[in-house]
Amino acid sequence: MRAVYGAVLRSCRNFYSAVEGRIAQRIITLAYGHPPMWPDARLLDLLGIEHPIIQAPMAGAVSPEMVIQVSEAGGLGSLPCAMLTPDQARNDLGVIRQRTSRPVNLNFFCHTPPRSDPAMEARWRDRLRPYYAELGIDADAPNPAAIRNPFDDAFCRVVEEFKPEAVSFHFGLPTSDLLQRVKATGARVLSSANSVREARWLEERGCDAIIAQGFEAGGHQAMFLSHDVDTQVGTMALVPQIADAVKVPVIAAGGIADGRGIAAAFALGASGVQIGTAYLLCPEATIRPVHREALLSAHENETAMTNVFTGRPARGIMNRAMRVSVNVSVRPRTRKSPSS
């Protein structure tokens, strides 16, 4: 972990804190009569971190050890809680707090859980039956669904108990009463936006910083006011639009893995970056060897957006499940926009 994280930081330092960066800053000041907009230290001040790097909260892939190492290195380690129970989150946080007193982030989903649909599940089982047979799996055996719990009173109690420095949300924000309880702990509230409209919506409701998530980001798209993935734009197009539209710090996310991406994000108005996939090759990641091998061997044109796994659009490395389900729309069923 330290080697990977150190490489990112060294590349970042070459841009915004090394001698070359100071020289560039002087040149721009002389040329334009004022210092450059970057580096923007608002996120560092807001979160109390040393480096403008947030480790993305990747549910199912992040261990407490990864959170500890990133925070100890001066970034913001993030514990994803969507696939944990409140007690599991409490146990992981206990480990983290024993090992680091640096700022940490807890991340939660704010989705509406789908209703059980036995008829649809039966159709999926019938469609996948040949693959069950190929792998010697009983297609009719009970198959417990993966936990993806939305933020609720029980999780809020965990936040109130541990008082993390930051709490981030995906798919919008929780209800106003829960949000106020989170803010009352002193935690800074972050959430992801895939559009200017979503960024403004989040700022109006008290977000302290906005994560501008581009179309190329791995994992779930955070979109919550719209579900049309065809309208989504890339990170480098989205960041300056959101930076111009809101007053709070903007965090760039999607396709950023080294100092070049960090430099580009700062130049476009970001105060920091959120990096995910680059951390999956760290020894602290909990992914399996087959996943690591896929990451190492995948080419730039081998990821795609799909809703096959969860019903919501998410980007992943193309695999057999995605290829045999190409006629399944990536657009989830229409959902109502969050209420005020």
Summed up, what is this model?
The chain is α/β, with parallel strands linked by helices.
The fraction of residues assigned to DSSP E strands is: 5-15%
Radius of gyration: 20 Å
Number of distinct helices:
13
Q: CATH class of the largest domain, please?
A: Alpha Beta
Can you count the beta strands? 11
Structural class: alpha/beta
Average pLDDT number: 85
Major sheet, described briefly?
A: 8 strands, parallel
Q: Quote the CATH topology of the largest domain.
A: TIM Barrel
| Principal-axis shape | globular
Count of all domains: 2
Q: What's the architecture of the largest domain, going by CATH?
A: Alpha-Beta Barrel
Spatial separation of the terminal alpha carbons: 41 Å
Helical fraction equals 40-55%
How would you name the CATH homologous superfamily of the largest domain?
Aldolase class I
What would your notes on this structure say?
There is one protein chain. The chain has 340 residues and is of the alpha/beta class. It folds into 2 domains: 287 residues, Alpha-Beta Barrel (TIM Barrel), CATH 3.20.20; 26 residues, no CATH class. It is built from 13 helices and 11 strands. The strands form 2 sheets. It has an 8-stranded parallel β-sheet. Strands 7-11-10 form a 3-stranded antiparallel β-sheet, with no helix packed on it. Helix 4 runs parallel beside helix 5, helix 5 packs parallel to helix 7 and helix 7 packs parallel to helix 8. The protein is globular. It starts with a helix and ends in a 17-residue tail after the last helix. The C terminus is likely disordered.
